Amino acid sequence: MVGIIADNIVSPLGFTTEENWQSLLSGRSGLHRYSQGFHLPEAFCASLIANEKIESYFSQLSDNKEDRYTKVEQIAILSAADAIHRSGIDAASEDVLFVLSTTKGNVELLQDLRGFEAERPYLWRSAQLIAQFFGNQNEPVVVSNACISGCAAQVVAQRLLETHRYRYAVVIGADVLSKFVISGFQSFKALSPAECQPFDADRCGLNLGEAAATVVLARCEDGEPKSDVCMLGGALCNDANHISAPSRTAEGLVSAFTQAVSHLENTVLQDVAFVNAHGTATRYNDDMESVALARLGLADVPVNSLKGYFGHTLGAAGVLETIISSRELLQGTILPTRGFQTPGTVEEIAVCQKLSRSDKPCFVKLISGFGGSNAALLFAKNDEFFLRNIKSEK
Amino acid sequence: MEEKKLYVLSYVRLTDRCLIVDGNVVLENTYDDTKQWISSIYKNIGMDYPKFFKMDRLCKVGTLCAEAAMRKSGFQNDDIKKNWAVICANSAGSLDDDRSYQETIQHDDNYFPSPSVFVYTLANIVTGEIAIRHKIQGESSCYVAQKFDANAFINAVSDLFLFTSAEYALAGWVDYDSAHCDVLMLVVSKKSTNSEAMTSHELSNVYAKQR
C-alpha cells in the first residue's frame, strides 16, 4: 500500500503545512486584488507569494550562492526540502524518484530569459535541477496534465512504487503566475474580478494562485514506514467531449471515481467523511461536479472547495488540496467553503458552509481540467481494521 | 525478470523528412515549409475533420499520426472507446504554441491576448484532441521528458495496462519544437496478438533509425 509519510505547503498562507492549516482554521485567504500586477492592463484578484519572502527563505536553505533558480524552482525546492526533512528519507538514494507536477513551469522566461539558458523554459530542465538540488540522480518524471496534474502525478507515483521500481516518491506540485498565465485566463473570461464563490448561485469565475506543495509517498509494508493517510485508489478519465469545457453529463469524472474504487470489495460511500471538489467557481465546472456527485450517490456527503483560500494553484492544486484534506481527515474537521453562501448548482449537493466534524475514515479528491481530463482519488486513515475490511479483493 | 514488450498493432513515424507507417515510407517531404508539409499529410491520409484547422501545430501532428495509426489497425473513430487510453510524452511541452501566445502579449502597445491561441498552451491538449477524435474515454496522460526513452515509455504503457481497465492505447512521443516535428505514435494492445511484439531495444531502433 502507498501512503503519505510527510508533506509541505508553500503558499501565501504559510511555508509549512501547519502554518497553512492554522491560517485556514482562522478563515484567512491568500486572495487580494491587484490593479497593476505583471504590467497587465486589467486588474485581477489572485493569491500571490511575496518574492522577498521566497528569497529570504531560499537564501537560508542554499549556501551555494552561484546557483540561480527561478521563482517556481525556488518554491518547489523549499517545499520539497521541508517535506523530505520531515520524512527522514535520504533524497539522494536511488530508491527515491522525484515527480514534478506543473502546467507552465518557467513560461515567464519567454518574455525575457534574464540570463538563464535557452533550455530553461523546458519543464524537464526545471525538474532535473530540483532533483539534483537534493543530490538525486534518477531522471525525474514530469506530469503536465493541465489542472489535474497534481492528482495525476500521485497516481503515476503510486504505480511506480507498487511495481517496486522505487521505494519513495517525492511528488512536487508547483506553479507561479505571470503576465502569460493571467492574461490568458482573462482572455478566456474565466476570472472573477472579486474573491471567488465556489458552488454559489452568484459565482462568476475563478481566481488564480501561486503555491508549491509536496507529498513524500512510500510503499508501506508491514506498517513501515509509518503513514497516517494512505491512497486507496485513483483513476484518470477523459471526457472525449471538448478541450476547454467539461462534459455536461460529467462522464469522465463519474468514470474516474467508479474506476478508482472498482478494486474494493465493499462500497465506500458510507465511509466518506467529505469530498474535496475542484470547485473552481466557474459556472460550468461547479455544475459538472454537482452532476457527478449526484450520479455517484454522493449528493448528501459534505463537499468543500479550497479555492476561496488559495485560488486555483494549477499544477500545485492536486497535491496541495490532498495535503489539506488529509489534515482535515486526521483531525476529524471539515473546512467550510470560503465564498459560498447561496446554493446554485444544477444538482443539489451538500456544500460545507461552516466548520464541521466527521470521524469517518475516507475522503475523496476530485479534479478536472482542460483537455477533458478528470481525476478521482480515494484516501483513507491508516486504520488496520477498516483497511482489511475494505481492501479484500474481489 | 522477463523483458517487457509492447504488442504493437501499428505504428506511425513522422519527422521533417517523411511519414512512415509500419516501417514503410508513405510520403516524403518536398516542401521547405512545415505548414505545407503538415497540410500535405492531411491530404495524403484523406482526413476530413474541420476541427483540425483550429489546432496548434503540436495537436495537428499528433492528431494526424493517431489517425494514420488507427486506420492502419482498422479501428473506427466513431465507436466509443471506454477501454482505451491515450498517453503522450514530449520534450517541448506546448512551448511552440506558448511562443505564439507570448507574441500576442509581448508588447504593451500591441497587446491582443487570444483565447484561441491560449487554449493550446498546455502540453496535454494533444491527448484531449486525440481522445475527442477517437472517442477515447479511458485514461489520458501527458509526460514531459528531455528525450524519448523507450524503456520509460514501455514501463508507462505496461503500468497503464496493469493498473487500469484499458485494453488498448494510443501511445506516442509527440514533439513539435522550432518548426521540427518528431512523432512516433503506436496503437498498442494489452493482450498478445499476431502483430509485432516490441522490446525496448526494438522500439529505440524504430525511433532512432527513422529520425
Features:
heterodimer; A: 394 residues; alpha/beta; ten-stranded mixed beta sheet; three-stranded mixed beta sheet; 31% helix; globular; B: 211 residues; alpha+beta; eight-stranded mixed beta sheet; 7 helices; 36% helix
Condensed summary:
The complex is a heterodimer of chains A (394) and B (211). Chain A is an alpha/beta fold and 394 residues long.
Strand content of chain A: 15-25%
Find the count of extended strands of chain B (DSSP E, 2+ residues). Answer: 8
Euclidean distance between termini CA atoms of chain B = 31 Å
The dominant shape of chain B is globular
Radius of gyration of chain A: 20 Å
Q: How does the major sheet of chain A shape up?
A: 10 strands, mixed
Topology overview:
The complex is a heterodimer of chains A (394) and B (211).
Chain A: E1 2-10, H1 17-25, E2 31-34, E3 44-47, H2 51-61, H3 71-87, E4 96-101, H4 123-133, E5 141-143, H5 149-162, E6 168-175, H6 179-187, E7 208-209, E8 211-219, E9 229-238, H7 251-260, E10 272-276, H8 283-295, E11 303-304, H9 307-310, H10 317-331, E12 333-334, E13 356-357, E14 362-369, E15 373-381, H11 384-391
Parallel strand pairs in A: 3-7, 4-5, 4-6, 10-11, 10-14
Antiparallel strand pairs in A: 1-8, 1-9, 2-3, 6-8, 9-15, 12-13, 14-15
Chain B: E1 6-14, E2 18-21, E3 24-28, H1 34-44, H2 57-72, E4 84-90, H3 95-105, H4 115-118, H5 125-134, E5 140-144, H6 150-163, E6 168-177, E7 180-189, E8 196-198, H7 200-209
Parallel strand pairs in B: 4-5, 4-6
Antiparallel strand pairs in B: 1-2, 1-7, 1-8, 2-3, 6-7
Helix pairs in contact in B: 1-2, 2-5, 6-7
